[in-house]
Structures are given as structure tokens and as C-alpha cells.
């Protein structure tokens, strides 16, 4: 069905893909795994016809055909009717429409009759369990909710091939299962599937072939079970092996409290009228790595916003480094709490990478004449592999580089607690190494890290303490290992990490 | 006043034009000012989103219009007592006009505008222009606020400072806002291509459109029962 032959693609310099080949037969469901920057997104963009139709690149050669017809010769409307695409960064393809508008958009654009659109819309909304989101503007939804809406929109017009880039991003384990179930149900309407993701295990139920991408080449697709056991192949591709042995998080010395949240209740309420956070109480001490987990929509984002003062508290207190911070401005709190979001674009606003780090240090300006500040900023960039990108515009960096810039800023800012929200760079070896370097630096300097993630293996690998947020309350707070056996965790219905592999000590 | 959001975009647009015409035809500066104040008061009574920000903008607009007209007329040799009513009338017209179109913008989502335009069988280009013209400004305003929150969340003190510093920080948001506007334009253009927006084919809509525009899918109605 889809045939890519001798594809070479580059953005200047060494090509990202070099004479890569991919053949996808009708009915085949292929998962491509590769480290960040290995060319997964570029490969998918070519397969979906986005490159060169909508995005031009400096270097491109090779042939791409769909059912024997070169992609370039297929009319644009016909091409995007036959191929559905969902990108990793949904903000690049969604705009301020409602849930129904987004799903119905391709059908309306093709002039389908109202009754047909409504019937299809109803089927998709019911099938995806999106009724509760009906009428909501899509940009107000959580990341996981947006992703399900985008999948529904891509399936609306019944494409022959669905191309998905990192579809599990932002989804909790239950939502990942729901996504798999949806894709499974849609298998009859959408014969072929091409997915790039670093979470191979979650997508096993919907793929029948797995291929690793490294050095610009795609390895021959294999049955997933065989590929998963091949630890060497994963490491060669720069990825953490999905079936690796468990490694217990290193224990460190715990010191004085840095952050204390007491009986916090937010003004923000859920649709039923309950506060999003209800009597939340916890402490974070020096040297701790605390993981915060919970369902999509449990209130994790609201919690860090409330700690920073971006969401108003109805009651409760926040103490930072022993001082009551309730009356502090957001900026004053932020100098103690550094936030590294999943999508760094949300907090970048300076015009160079070094400007961002200088801003993090000074909290006032992106330019400094103080040689000490500039040297500190340069050192932070170098520590996270960004030394050569000092003058690059932060918006032109890759998602991975932006995430590293976030770590560099948080490290250089000297904040007491760093809140890292779903660090996507943590699934490949180099990214994990840099994240661990950041965590070690924070611990060694008497600071602490709060890790918000749906990646339970990551949590298990790095966090010494687990907090579980459920229905606006901290349902569990204690050692990570015991957390997986707690009633609160059992209530989520998720599988504990490394459930089927033995452990080793770090 | 949720129902205002569901009122057909073209009805709101017609109302805005009527308000504008009335403001410009007002017989004298006293009537013009009274009408402008009434328009702003209505925005407050109808709890239009962002009305506090609009009011500040309207005050700034009034001051700038008054100052520029007074200067202009004085330079032409017109006495201040005669120039003042002219400047006030002009400011009143502009406040009433902006209030009317602010109301349309803040209560019309791009989706509702697309639906109303598609139901009216307007050419796709006109549909797109209307949706973007009236839909993008609230999106950019939301981005402006988001950038301010990002600055706060990165430790930049923009609240506990004097007005001159606040204004300077607000102006500094211009560059990231421009970057964001370009990204937004790219996202919209990408979305239009990906989801098959065709300038040669008239669109349809899933919504029931009449005097009101259906805000969410309601399947238990007569149209779907057929």
C-alpha cells in the first residue's frame, strides 16, 4: 500500500534519514521506535504526504508511493482523505474550535450532508467516550483529551492509512488502553496504521510489526514480541529496552522541608461543584525526588498552578523554605519553584537559548553584562548538550532540545524545587542520562524535584516517594515501592511498572 | 448570558452595524456620549467576557482621540470651547463602535461563525475571512495573557511593580506574541490543508442554524429523528 524507497531527508548537514526504506501492506500495523531526533517525525511526515506538500525541506530524495501512485501526483484533497495524520504536538494542527467542530471539520469541508455528519459525529463521540466534552473548546481540554479528539477527527473521514506521531503522549495508562481499544475497533474502517512512539509496550495490542529507526535507517520490521526481547537492538537504537530489568531508585539523604502545602482547596471547581483540589496536604524536603501521578484530569496541573499562585486558592497555606508564601506574587514563588512543562513553548518568550537561561538566572532580563551570569548560563547550556545552540531561537529548537533548555533554565535558576511535567526525553538513553544528571545536580545542591508523569517505569526508576492524586485529594503519599501495592493505586486499575520483569539494584 | 453566545453571528453583526450607524448619526455630542456610555454599560450588564479590559482600552482610546482632535483643531485656530464638543463626539462614536464589535468578537467562536457562514452558503473564502477576522483576536488576547503567566511563572515580577514598569513589560510581550501569532497562523493553515478546506467547494455544517446556533451536538431533536 505505502512504499518508501531510498528516502534521504535532511535539514542541512548530515541527513536525518539516509536511503531509508519502508513498505506497509494493506492491513498492516507498523510501530516505528527511535530515539529523539532519530527522524521518526520526518519519516512519518513523508509517509503522510506532509513533506514536501505542506512542509519543504532543503534535502529530499527517493520515492514514495501509495497503492503504486507517487504521492506527489495525488490531488491534495484526495491525499489527505486517504491518509489521516495526527502529529505529536497537537497545537500545530488544532485551533480554537469546539470538540464537535474539530471532528466534523473534514466532513463539513467535503460538503457532506448535515444528517450524515451528525450521525458520524454521534458515533465517534459515543465510541470515544467524549460525550462529557461535548461543546467544549478544544484548546481548553487536557493534553490527553485533545489527543482523543484529534484521533476522532482523523478517523472521521475514514482514511485508508492512519499515521500517528507519539500518540501516547500525555495519556494516562487507562487512556492508552482506551486509545488501543478505539484503534482496534476502527481496524475495519482504517486498514493500515503507521505509528511512531517510544512507548512500545502500550501499543502492542494494536500493532503487528515493530521496526527500530537509527542512523537514518529503518530496520526490517519484526513481530513485536521478538523485537521487544532484543535488548541490544534497543540500546543500539539509543533507547531504553522496554523489557529491561527493574532498577530501584537510589535513596538519598532527606533534609529540611522546602515546600509545604497544607489543606489546600482551590476556587476552581469541577462541573459537579467540587473543588478541583480538596484539602491537599504534603511536604517536599531537600534531596527528595517525589513523583506525582494520577488520572488525566485528576488535578495535577491545577496543583502546580495553585502552588505557583496561577490558580487561586480558596483555603490552605503554602510555605516555601520555611516562610509563609500565601501572599507572595506568582513571580516571587516562581523564584523558589521552577516549572518545566511538557510543552516548553508555553513558557519560552526570549529570542535566544542563552537569553532564556540568563532570564532564568536574573528573573528580569535576557541580556546581562555580568560575566559571571553569562558564564553560568553558558555552563548550564553545555551541561545539557545545548552549548552549540546558544544563539538559536528557542522556538526553532526541536521538542527534545526545548525540554533540555527547560532543565538548563531550572538548574541555573537555583530554585529550591523543580517541577518537571511529563519529561518526554526520558525514554531514550541520552535523554534519560541528562534527566538523571539534572536530578543529581538538584539533590547534590540540597534541592528537590517533583516529577509529574504517566510513565510509571520512569517514576519507579527515579522517584524515592510517590504521591497519587485522585478526585482532588492525595490518595497515597509514601515510598514508591509500597505505592504500587496500595489500595489507592489498585483503584486506578493500572498495571504496576515492571510487573513482569525481575529487579536489580542500582 | 450564555444565550448571547448562541445568537446567530450575522444577527449580532447586523446589531453591531446598527449601533455603529446610530452612534455616527447621533444629533450632538451630548447624545453621542450618552449612547456610548449606554453601550459600555450594556457590555457590563450582559457580562461580556473581558469587559474590564475593554473598558480600560476604551478609556485609553477616548484620551488619545480627545488629545489628538483637540491638538488638531487648536492648531487650525478653533477655540478650545468649540473644539471640545467635536473631540468628545468623535471619541463617543469610536467607543460605541468598538463596543459593538467587541461584543460580536467576544461572543462569537470561530466554530459558530463557520457554522453560520456555511449555513448561509457563503463562499468558503468569505467564511474563512469572517471566522479568522472575528475569531483570531480573542485567541491572540488569550495568548497575550498566557505569555504574561509564563513570565510570572519564570519569576518575572510584573504584578508588584509601578504602572510604567507594567506598561514596559506589556510592550515586551509584543515580540513573543508576534512569534505566537505566526505559529497560530501556521497551525490554522496546516489544519485547513490537512482537513480538506477547499476554497472551490461550499461547506456544510453539523449545527442547526437559525436565529440561534446550536452550541453542542444534541441528537434528540427533530432533525436527527428524520
TrEMBL record, chain A:
Q: Name one Pfam family in it.
A: ABC_tran
Q: Does the keyword Membrane apply?
A: no
Q: Does the keyword ATP-binding apply?
A: yes
Instruction: Alphabetically list the UniProt keywords.
Output: ATP-binding, Nucleotide-binding, Transport
SUPFAM superfamilies noted in UniProt: P-loop containing nucleoside triphosphate hydrolases
Name this protein carries in UniProt: Sugar ABC transporter
GO MF terms here are: ATP binding; ATP hydrolysis activity; ATPase-coupled transmembrane transporter activity
InterPro entries hit by this protein? AAA+_ATPase, ABC_transporter-like_ATP-bd, ABC_transporter-like_CS, ABC_transpr_CbiO/EcfA_su, ECF_ABC_transporter_ATP-bd, P-loop_NTPase
GO CC aspect terms: ATP-binding cassette (ABC) transporter complex
- Give the species this sequence originates from: Xaviernesmea rhizosphaerae
Alphabetized CDD domains for the sequence: ABC_cobalt_CbiO_domain1
Task: Indicate the family of this protein.
Answer: Belongs to the ABC transporter superfamily.
| Boundaries of every ABC transporter domain copy | 2-240, 259-496
From TrEMBL, chain B:
Ranges annotated as spanning the membrane: 7-25, 31-46, 58-75, 81-104, 125-142, 177-197
Keyword Disulfide bond, does the record have it? no
- Signal peptide positions (record): none
- Localization: Membrane
In the UniProt record, which is one GO cellular component term? plasma membrane
Q: Which UniProt keywords apply?
A: Cell membrane, Membrane, Transmembrane, Transmembrane helix
Task: Provide the primary localization.
Answer: membrane
Membrane topology, as annotated: Multi-pass membrane protein
**The organism's place on the tree of life at top rank:** Bacteria
The record, for InterPro entries, names: ABC/ECF_trnsptr_transmembrane (IPR003339), ECF_transporter_component (IPR051611)
Q: Which family does it belong to?
A: Belongs to the CbiQ family.
Name-wise, this protein is ABC transporter substrate-binding protein
Q: Which species is this record about?
A: Xaviernesmea rhizosphaerae
Amino acid at each position: 500500500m505505502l512504499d518508501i524507497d531510498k528516502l534521504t531527508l535532511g535539514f542541512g548537514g548530515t541527513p536525518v534519514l539516509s536511503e531509508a526504506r519502508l513498505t506497509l501492506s494493506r492491513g498492516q500495523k507498523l510501530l516505528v521506535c527511535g530515539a529523539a531526533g532519530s527522524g521518526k517525525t520526518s519519516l512519518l511526515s513523508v509517509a503522510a504526504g506532509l513533506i514536501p506538500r505542506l512542509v519543504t525541506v532543503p534535502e529530499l530524495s527517493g520515492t514514495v508511493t501509495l497503492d503504486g501512485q507517487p504521492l506527489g501526483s495525488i490531488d491534495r484533497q484526495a491525499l489527505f482523505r486517504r491518509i489521516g495524520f495526527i502529529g505529536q504536538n497537537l497545537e500545530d494542527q488544532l485551533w480554537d474550535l469546539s470538540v464537535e467542530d474539530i471532528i466534523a471539520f473534514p466532513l463539513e469541508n467535503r460538503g457532506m450532508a448535515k444528517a450524515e455528519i451528525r450521525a458520524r459525529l454521534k458515533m465517534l463521540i459515543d465510541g470515544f467516550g467524549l460525550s462529557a466534552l461535548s461543546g467544549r473548546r478544544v484548546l481548553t481540554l487536557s493534553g490527553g483529551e485533545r489527543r482523543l479528539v484529534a484521533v476522532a477527527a482523523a478517523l472521521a473521514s475514514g482514511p485508508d492509512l492512519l499515521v500517528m506521531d507519539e500518540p501516547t503522549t500525555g495519556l494516562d495508562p487507562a487512556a492508552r488502553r482506551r486509545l488501543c481499544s478505539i484503534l482496534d475497533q476502527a481496524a475495519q474502517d482504517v486498514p493500515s496504521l503507521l505509528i511512531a512512539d517510544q512507548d512500545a509496550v502500550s501499543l502492542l495490542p494494536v500493532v503487528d510489526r515493530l521496526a527500530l529507526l537509527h542512523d537514518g535507517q529503518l530496520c526490517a520490521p519484526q513481530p513485536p514480541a521478538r523485537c521487544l526481547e532484543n535488548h541490544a537492538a534497543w540500546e543500539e537504537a539509543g533507547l531504553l529496552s522496554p523489557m529491561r530489568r527493574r532498577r530501584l531508585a537510589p535513596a538519598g539523604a532527606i533534609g529540611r522541608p522546602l515546600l509545604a502545602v497544607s489543606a489546600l482547596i482551590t476556587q476552581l471547581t469541577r462541573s459537579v461543584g467540587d473543588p478541583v483540589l480538596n484539602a491537599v496536604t504534603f511536604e517536599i524536603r531537600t534531596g527528595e525526588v517525589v513523583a506525582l501521578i494520577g488520572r488525566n484530569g485528576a488535578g495535577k496541573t491545577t496543583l502546580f498552578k495553585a502552588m505557583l499562585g496561577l490558580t487561586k486558592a480558596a483555603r490552605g497555606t503554602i510555605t516555601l523554605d520555611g516562610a509563609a508564601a500565601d501572599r507572595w506574587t506568582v513571580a516571587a514563588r516562581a523564584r523558589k519553584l521552577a516549572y518545566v512543562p511538557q510543552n516548553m513553548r508555553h513558557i519560552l518568550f526570549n529570542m535566544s537559548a542563552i537569553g532564556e537561561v540568563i532570564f532564568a538566572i536574573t528573573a528580569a532580563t535576557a541580556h546581562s553584562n555580568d560575566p559571571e551570569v553569562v558564564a553560568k548560563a553558558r555552563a548550564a547550556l553545555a551541561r545539557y548538550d545545548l552549548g552549540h545552540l546558544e544563539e538559536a531561537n528557542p522556538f526553532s529548537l526541536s521538542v527534545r532540545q526545548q525540554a533540555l533548555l527547560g532543565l538548563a533554565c531550572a538548574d541555573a535558576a537555583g530554585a529550591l524545587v523543580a517541577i518537571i511535567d511529563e519529561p518526554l526525553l526520558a525514554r531514550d538513553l541520552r535523554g534519560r542520562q541528562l534527566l538523571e544528571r539534572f536530578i543529581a545536580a538538584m539533590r547534590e545542591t540540597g534541592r528537590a524535584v517533583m516529577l509529574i508523569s504517566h510513565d510509571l517505569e520512569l517514576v519507579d526508576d527515579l522517584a524515592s516517594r510517590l504521591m497519587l492524586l485522585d478526585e482532588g485529594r492525595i490518595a497515597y503519599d509514601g515510598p514508591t515501592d509500597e505505592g504500587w501495592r496500595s489500595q489507592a493505586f489498585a483503584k486506578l486499575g493500572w498495571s504496576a511498572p515492571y510487573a513482569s520483569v525481575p529487579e536489580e539494584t542500582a | 448570558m450564555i444565550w448571547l453566545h448562541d445568537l446567530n453571528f450575522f444577527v449580532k453583526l447586523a446589531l453591531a452595524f446598527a449601533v455603529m450607524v446610530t452612534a455616527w448619526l447621533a444629533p450632538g455630542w451630548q447624545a453621542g456620549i450618552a449612547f456610548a456610555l449606554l453601550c459600555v454599560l450594556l457590555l457590563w450588564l450582559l457580562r461580556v467576557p473581558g469587559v474590564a479590559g475593554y473598558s480600560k482600552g476604551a478609556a485609553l482610546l477616548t484620551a488619545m482621540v480627545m488629545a489628538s482632535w483637540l491638538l488638531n483643531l487648536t492648531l487650525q485656530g478653533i477655540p478650545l470651547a468649540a473644539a471640545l464638543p467635536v473631540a468628545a463626539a468623535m471619541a463617543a462614536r469610536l467607543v460605541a463602535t468598538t463596543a459593538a464589535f467587541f461584543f460580536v468578537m467576544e461572543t462569537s467562536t470561530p466554530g459558530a461563525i463557520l457554522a453560520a457562514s456555511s449555513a448561509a452558503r457563503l463562499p468558503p473564502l468569505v467564511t474563512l475571512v469572517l471566522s479568522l477576522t472575528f475569531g483570531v483576536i480573542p485567541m491572540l488576547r488569550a495568548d497575550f495573557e498566557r505569555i504574561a503567566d509564563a513570565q510570572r511563572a519564570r519569576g518575572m515580577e510584573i504584578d508588584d511593580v509601578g504602572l510604567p514598569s507594567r506598561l514596559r513589560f506589556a510592550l515586551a510581550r509584543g515580540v513573543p506574541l508576534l512569534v505566537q501569532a505566526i505559529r497560530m497562523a501556521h497551525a490554522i493553515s496546516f489544519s485547513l490543508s490537512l482537513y480538506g478546506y477547499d476554497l472551490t467547494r461550499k461547506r456544510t455544517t453539523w449545527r442547526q442554524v437559525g436565529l440561534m446556533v446550536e452550541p453542542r451536538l444534541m441528537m434528540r431533536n427533530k432533525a436527527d429523528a428524520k
